């Protein structure tokens, strides 16, 4: 994990591999942003002109490196684009700062220290820069086939493809080792708390990213459950793991039905954080399909190569519970990880089979590739028995949501309009793109079944909404419920951008942590 330090030193005086400054897109050319005054002075007040000569415009995400002028301790100046100059008296918004800092961190991969002299006007802007810089510094350690989420990784011992760390380092310089935040106030309690929050939050997002990036042959349901148990011991959390025998005894037909085609049996993990002064209780439910072949309804070629990411919801829930514990939030938070591997075999669930779900409802399985809603249904029903104030499930649930919202935005569905609005506001505040979606009542008829209480498929058009309607059927009366379909942003198959890496992104963790913080303050919308 990249170290984060706060510094009141001048950007010119800090010893670092590079000093990072912001440059905005002005009407007449690039404009050096606040925070870089000392660096600009070293260039005789002509840093903007030098950058323009080098082709810089200040466009968002643009990176320009140049040799430092005399008077600077760092040998390199890295100018990162912030986009348009903000309106008078308006500073740069938090997300702009996050993305700029993340872009700079990625550009400094392999360096020991970067001095970030971006516009920091208050604690909120300092927190945004810190968060973005740490998020952008992430790299996945491929040397042992595992991102390092477990300290004593059996994966490094078991995989024949494990490489010597030194050899891996030649190909991957590793993340930026230290971020020094110029303008941060190390003796100020608010700045110090913001830095500590950013570090803990990003470490847990990176935990989720590591799990998502781990190959499926190295992370089956039992492996995932072991990761949760290990983290629980480290952070004082309570866990309960239901194996296949316990699942059968308890009647968890959804999870068992999805997992019965695999040699790696399913698990349901309960991981809980409690605070003695908590007034609100949240239950988070995560889809944890460690590999999704589609089952008997096999996915076509080209659609299954990245299906190790189908446990991103469970990874987000796991990371959120640990983050809440590390931050000491005054909330009770229970995470439910519904873990299974969806594989075709002679024992696999067939299209047309009827499953008896936890709680007694029956479901006709029309498509075994609509498996996420089956494992979530069991876990949502079980979570509701504990009477939380709200349940939020998180899942890479439908390709239909990707078609509707693209690769960077997740959908929000709820049984309460005010809660839907609140979740949207929280996501935007946390810096995650989301969009509130409806649950049209006319689509409910499409999941009627002649042989069961309901079917796991309905109308093709609006498939993401149909999935939400299905899940709603398993929410107990009187419980506020939200559903986040993160199928688009959970796994980035394109090139990295801003603070977002290629591969697992840790989508929804920031939103869920912010939700938990609000709940700790007594506000659930």
UniProtKB/TrEMBL annotation:
SUPFAM superfamilies: Macro domain-like, Zn-dependent exopeptidases. The active site is at residues 299, 373. Residues 145-177 are annotated as: Disordered. Binds 2 manganese ions per subunit. It is found in: Cytoplasm. The keyword Cytoplasm applies. PANTHER family: CYTOSOL AMINOPEPTIDASE, LEUCINE AMINOPEPTIDASE-RELATED. This is Probable cytosol aminopeptidase.
């Amino acid at each position: 994990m990249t170290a984060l330090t706060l510094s009141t030193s001048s950007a010119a005086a800090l010893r670092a591999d590079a000093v990072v400054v912001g440059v905005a897109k002005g009407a007449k050319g690039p404009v050096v942003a606040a925070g870089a005054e000392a660096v600009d002075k070293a260039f005789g007040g002509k840093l903007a002109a030098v950058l323009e000569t080098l082709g810089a415009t200040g466009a968002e995400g643009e990176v320009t490196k140049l040799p430092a002028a005399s008077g600077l301790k760092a040998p390199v100046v890295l100018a990162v684009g912030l986009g348009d100059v903000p309106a008078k008296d308006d500073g740069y918004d938090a997300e702009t700062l996050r993305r700029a800092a993340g872009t700079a961190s990625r550009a400094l991969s392999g360096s020991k220290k970067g001095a970030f002299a971006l516009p920091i006007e208050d604690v909120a802007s300092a927190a945004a820069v810190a968060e973005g810089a740490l998020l952008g510094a992430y790299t996945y350690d491929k040397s042992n086939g595992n991102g390092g989420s477990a300290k004593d990784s059996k994966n490094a011992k078991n995989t024949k493809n494990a490489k010597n760390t030194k050899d891996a380092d030649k190909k991957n310089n590793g993340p930026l080792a230290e971020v020094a935040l110029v303008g941060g106030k190390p003796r100020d309690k608010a700045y110090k708390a913001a830095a500590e929050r950013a570090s803990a939050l990003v470490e847990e997002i990176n935990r989720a990213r590591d799990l998502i990036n781990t190959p499926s042959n190295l992370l089956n349901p039992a492996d995932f459950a072991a990761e949760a148990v290990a983290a629980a011991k480290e952070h004082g959390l309570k866990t309960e793991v239901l194996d296949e025998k316990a699942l059968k005894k308890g009647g968890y037909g959804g999870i068992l039905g999805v997992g019965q085609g695999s040699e790696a049996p399913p698990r349901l993990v309960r991981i809980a954080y409690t605070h003695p002064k908590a007034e609100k209780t949240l239950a988070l439910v995560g889809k944890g399909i460690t590999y999704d072949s589609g089952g008997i309804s096999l996915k076509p070629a080209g659609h299954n190569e990245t299906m190790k990411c189908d446990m991103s919801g469970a990874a987000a829930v796991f990371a959120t519970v640990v983050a809440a514990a590390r931050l000491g939030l005054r909330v009770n938070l229970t995470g439910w990880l519904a873990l299974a591997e969806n594989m075709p075999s002679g024992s696999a669930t067939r299209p047309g089979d009827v499953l008896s779900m936890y709680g007694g409802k029956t479901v006709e399985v029309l498509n075994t590739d609509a498996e996420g809603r089956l494992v979530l249904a069991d876990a949502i029903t079980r979570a509701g028995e504990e009477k939380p104030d709200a349940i939020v499930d998180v899942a890479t649930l439908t390709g239909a949501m990707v078609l509707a919202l693209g690769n960077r935005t997740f959908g929000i569905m709820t049984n309460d309009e005010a809660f839907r609005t609140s979740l949207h506001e929280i996501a935007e505040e946390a810096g995650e793109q989301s969009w509130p979606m409806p649950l049209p009542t006319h689509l409910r008829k499409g999941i009627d079944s002649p042989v069961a209480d309901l079917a796991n498929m309905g109308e093709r058009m609006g498939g993401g909404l149909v999935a939400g309607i299905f899940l709603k059927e398993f929410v107990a009366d009187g419980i506020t419920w939200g559903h986040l379909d993160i199928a688009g942003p959970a796994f980035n198959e394109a090139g990295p951008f801003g603070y977002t890496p290629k591969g697992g992104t840790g989508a929804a963790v920031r939103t869920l942590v912010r939700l938990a913080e609000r709940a700790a303050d007594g506000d659930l919308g």
